[in-house]
Amino acid sequence: MKPPVGRVLCRSAAATAQSPPFLSAPRSRRRTTTTTTILTSFAQRRHPLSTTTRHHLIADDAAQSALDMAPKAPKFELKTPKGTKDWEGKDMVIRDKIFSTITDVFKRHGGVTIDTPVFELKEILSGKYGEDSKLIYDLADQGGELTSLRYDLTVPFARFLAMNKDIQNIKRYHIAKVYRRDQPAMTKGRMREFYQCDFDIAGIYDPMLPDAEVIRVIDEVFEGLGWNGEYTIKLNHRKILDGIFQVCGVPEDKIRTISSAVDKLDKLPWAEVRKEMTVDKGLAEDVADRIGEWVVLKGKRDLLEKLEQDEKLSTNESMKQGTADLRLLFEYLESFNAFERVSFDLSLARGLDYYTGLIYEVVTQGSAPEKSPVTAGEEGAATPKPKKKSKANSEDDDRSDDPTVGVGSVAAGGRYDNLVGMFSGKTQIPCVGISFGVDRIFSITSARMAKNKTAEQVRKNEVDVYVMAFGGNGFLKERMEVCAQLWSAGIKAEFLYKTKPRVPAQFKAAENNGVPFAIFLGEDEVANKQVKIKEMGLSKDHPEKEGILVSQQDFVVEIKLRLQRKKELDQVAVQAEGLKVVDGIKKGEEDGDAAAEAAPAPAS
Hints:
Blueprint: H1 5-18, H2 21-24, H3 27-32, H4 35-44, H5 51-69, H6 89-108, E1 112-113, E2 119-121, H7 122-125, E3 147-149, H8 154-163, E4 170-179, E5 193-202, H9 209-224, E6 232-237, H10 238-248, H11 255-262, H12 270-280, H13 285-295, E7 298-299, H14 301-309, H15 317-335, E8 342-345, E9 358-363, H16 373-377, E10 411-415, H17 419-424, E11 431-437, H18 438-452, E12 465-469, H19 476-488, E13 493-495, H20 503-512, E14 517-521, H21 523-527, E15 530-535, E16 548-551, H22 555-576, E17 580-582, E18 585-587
Parallel strand pairs: 1-4, 6-8, 12-13, 12-14
Antiparallel strand pairs: 2-3, 4-5, 5-11, 6-9, 7-8, 9-10, 10-11, 14-15, 15-16, 17-18
C-alpha cells in the first residue's frame, strides 16, 4: 500500500532542508532542477515549505549559478617563470628583517633614497657590463622605443645623475628588483629576478674618504645581521691590475678581456684560467705565466709593500696610482675600525666595464662551491647525478643541486668615476658604492638558521597581544573595543573573527604565531569592568601563570610596561649567552668556521 502523498512530500522537504539539493542531487538533475521549479511544485500540491527549506533552496540556486559562471581552469601549468619565486610566511619575515637592517645602516650614514623605472632604454644599458651584457632582458618594441629590464641599480643611478645636473653630490640608497637571464640556482640565491640594496656616494671629495666609508657600511650591515665577523671583504684596485697586465705584456685591447678571465680564479684553478687566456683569448703563454705569478697572491700591507718594492711594477704609473690609493685607504679603515675583515686579493677583477678604481666584494662560508668544475669532473671524484634536462632549454634548468655552483659573493661594488660622463658628455661626477645581494644573504642566513635549528623561532607577524573571549555570548563587541584601544596606543593586537569563538581555537591562533601576551574577557571580567592579562608560555609554578586582573582603564598602560620589561629581559638573556640574535639569527654560533674566500660576484 502506497503512503499518502502528503507524507512523501513532507519527508522530501525535510530531507531537502538537511542536505542542499545542489550537493546531493546527481549532476544531470542539478542543471535542470531550479528553486523556482521546486517552489512551484510544492505550491501546486498545497504543501507549504518551511522558511529554512526556502532559504536552502534559494542559496542552492545562487551557488549553482556561481558555479556555472566561474571561469574554467587554465590548461597550462600554473607556476612562476624560471628563476623567480613567490615569497611568503617566515621567508618574508627574514627577508624584511634583512631589508630593515640594511636600510637602518644606510640612513645612519646620511643616505637618501630614490627610485627609477624597472626598465630603461636599451642604449642606456648597452656596453656597460662587458661579457655579462648577454644576460640583459630585452623587451619587445612597445611603441617606438627599444627597452630592457634593468640589470643593476648602478647604471640607472648614473643616468639619473646625468639628467639631474643640479645634483652634484649625494649619498643615495636604492632597494629594488633587478633582472638577469642567468642560469638559476634558486636555493643558493641565484635568481633571474632578485633584490639589490645599493648605497653610493657621488661627488668630488678628497681621495679614498668616501671609499673608506663604504667599507665601513659593509662592516655595519653584516655585523647588524649577526654574522659576527664571519665574512671577508676582498678588495683590489683596477689600476693595480692594469699595471700588472701592462708590465707583463698584455696588449691594451686585451686588458679588459684578460681581466674578466682573472676574475674566475675564485671558482677555477689557475690552469683553467690560463687556458682561457691563451687558447680562448689568444694571449701569449709567457705573458700568461707572468700574470700568474701575481694574481694568485693575497694579503694586506705586506702584499702592498711587495708590489711597491718590485723594480718593474714600481715604475708603472697606473700601479703607482693604485698602490698610493690603497695605502691611504688602509689608514682610513683603521681609523674607522673597519680594517680587520679586509683582504687585499689580486685575483679580484670584477667583470663590469665601468669600474675605474677600488673594487671589492664580500664572501662568507657558503659563498664558494663545494667543488670546482674541474675537481667535480676528475676521475674518481664523487659527482651527484644531474637532474634530467630539457634538450631545448638545458641552460635554463635550475642548478641548485650542482656542487660546482656556490652562492657567490653576497655584496660587491667599487669606484666608477666615468660612468655619469658617458651619459652627460663633459660633466663627470665621481662615484663609489656597494650593492648587497639580498637573496644571497637570505640563502646563507636560512642555511645557518636551519643548521642551528632557529628557523622555528621566527614569527610570521609581530602581534604582541591576542584578545580572547571565555564563555558568555562571545563578547565580540568587547573584544573589538579592547583591540581598538590597543591599536590606538600603537600596540599590535589581533582577535579571532568569530562571534562565539571556541577557547582552543583562540589559544591555537595565539600559540601558532608565538604571541607573547593574551587578554581574556569572561563574564566576571566584563561585569567588573576588568580584563585578565596573561603572559604566554610561563612555567606551571610561575605566580602569574593564570594571569592578573587589571581594570579596563589601566590595561593599555600595563601591557606597555610588560612589553618593555619582556624586551629588556630578552636582551639580558641574549647578552648573558654572548650571542646576538636578529629574529632568530644567532651571532657566534658557528665557532671555528672560517670565512671562505671564493665566490663569483653579483654586479653593483
